[in-house]
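User: Could you go from structure to sequence for me? I need the amino acid at each position, not a summary. Structure tokens:
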């Protein structure tokens, strides 16, 4: 009988060889595999697993997916590989691959990802978007690029100025098509598409498929591979969601005491308006809590600067409005805090999806005053989930909590277990009285002043 030597002899490990990686099966070229290893990606995400082989073969693709699924690498890796292999020079004013995306933030993020994944290759890429001077963009386009990432308005503007041509596009990507529709960009997108050769490889990504987008896919794609990856609700599953009932006038104090919790390593705070976002930053800075705001009234360079500081950990707190946050792709956001609840459940799902990205877990804390109970109810109906109450803080309003309980028929349980939140009173537990008339009750008030003073 043969003995199973494999069980007795440890396998010989050749340390000069890279350790096996789930990406090995995708037939990616070595410079890409190395870049992916550098990023410490061990396995392709479902969309990468499904899309990459078809895209490498040159097929068109219709991807029903949103940010957070690994969508960018799913199209970026095959683009890099195909451009490297076909090795056609772009020539002056030429563009070999065009990626259209609706917002400047997304454009910058895609361009950064291309830099990362393409770091061991010699392909040239550039990004163009509106709201900044065009000179640098024009200069880069005149030289010709392998990959151009762009928002539609500025792209069309530069096209009309004859800064580049689209005759040589081999691969075309339309990213976030449904958002293009929402933002009124479809006419521009169609104009741009009409300049591109019908023989180029095309991909279209969209989180939802309204009728207009379905029509677009028919004119843009030839016999596409269709891939649909997990809808947002599955991302939401990994997020620990809590609601904190608080009188409106106490929100500010509650937020400050929450941010004293060191386990909140990187927090994205949502406000409903630009003005509201600025006010939050101002109030936090009074308590020496450094925060930046990102919204439509900020210049593009201020937005990029704020996002960079947040990404690199120089600033721990970023305050955003819904529009500005679209597509924020920052790893390691431990907490999303809804200073105000959004009036649309989709925005809630989108907001909290900024945490718990790429397999991590995360926490979403929503401050809810009396006027927002209706929003909470709609969110819970849409997500089919009751959000647990975090009552263990000195600003908890039992009166709001009880109204919420009634509107749901049965009163949902508060979270009674001990938590490590900074805003839990020192002697804590659940025996402390709730805030009343906008002020914490005696005893707690002293504690809260002490905490504020420490911050
Ligand atoms: P995206 O959906 O493209 O916005 O990607 C979301 C996040 O997932 C980004 O921070 C990527 O760096 C990360 N990511 C993409 N692919 C992988 C992977 N295979 N393993 C781990 N993280 C990934």
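Assistant: Here is the amino acid at each position, in order:
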């Amino acid at each position: 009988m043969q003995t199973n030597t494999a069980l007795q002899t440890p396998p010989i490990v050749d340390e000069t060889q890279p350790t096996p990686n789930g990406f090995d099966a995708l037939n990616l070229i070595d410079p890409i595999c190395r870049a992916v290893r550098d990023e410490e990606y061990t396995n392709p995400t479902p969309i990468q697993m499904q899309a990459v082989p078809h895209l490498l073969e040159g097929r068109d693709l219709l991807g029903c997916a949103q940010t957070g699924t690994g969508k960018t690498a799913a199209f970026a890796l095959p683009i890099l590989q195909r451009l490297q292999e076909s090795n056609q020079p772009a020539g002056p004013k030429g563009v070999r691959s065009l990626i259209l995306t609706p917002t400047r933030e997304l454009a910058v993020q895609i361009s950064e990802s291309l830099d990362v994944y393409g770091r061991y290759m010699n392909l040239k890429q550039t990004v163009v978007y509106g709201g900044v001077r065009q000179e640098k963009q024009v200069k880069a386009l005149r030289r010709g690029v392998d990959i151009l990432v762009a928002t539609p308005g500025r792209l069309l503007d530069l096209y009309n100025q004859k800064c580049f041509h689209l005759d040589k596009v081999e691969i075309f990507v339309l990213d976030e098509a449904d958002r293009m529709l929402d933002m009124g960009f479809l006419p521009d997108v169609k104009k741009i598409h009409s300049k591109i050769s019908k023989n180029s490889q095309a991909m279209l990504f969209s989180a939802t498929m309204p009728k207009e987008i379905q029509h677009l896919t028919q004119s843009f794609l030839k016999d596409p591979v269709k891939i649909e990856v997990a809808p947002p609700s599955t991302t939401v599953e990994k997020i620990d969601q809590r609601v904190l009932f608080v009188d409106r006038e106490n929100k500010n104090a509650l937020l400050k005491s929450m941010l004293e919790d060191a386990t909140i390593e990187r927090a994205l705070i949502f406000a409903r308006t630009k003005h509201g976002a600025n006010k939050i930053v101002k109030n936090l800075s009074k308590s020496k809590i450094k925060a930046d705001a990102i919204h439509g009234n900020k210049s593009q360079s201020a937005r990029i600067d704020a996002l960079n500081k947040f990404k690199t950990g120089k600033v721990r707190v970023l305050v955003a409005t819904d529009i500005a946050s679209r597509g924020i792709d920052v790893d390691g956001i431990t907490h999303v805090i809804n200073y105000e609840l959004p009036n649309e459940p989709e925005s809630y799902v989108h907001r909290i999806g900024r945490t718990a990205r790429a397999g991590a877990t995360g926490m979403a804390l929503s401050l809810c005053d009396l006027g927002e109970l209706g929003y909470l109810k709609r969110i819970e109906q849409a997500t089919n989930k009751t959000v647990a109450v975090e009552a263990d803080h000195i600003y908890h309003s039992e009166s709001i909590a009880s109204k919420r309980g009634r509107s749901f028929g049965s009163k949902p349980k508060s979270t009674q277990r001990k938590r490590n939140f900074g805003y839990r009173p020192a002697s804590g537990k659940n025996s402390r009285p709730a805030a009343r008339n906008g002020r914490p009750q005696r005893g707690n008030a002293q504690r809260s002043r002490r905490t504020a003073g420490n911050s």
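One structural detail worth keeping in mind: The longest strand covers residues 239-245.
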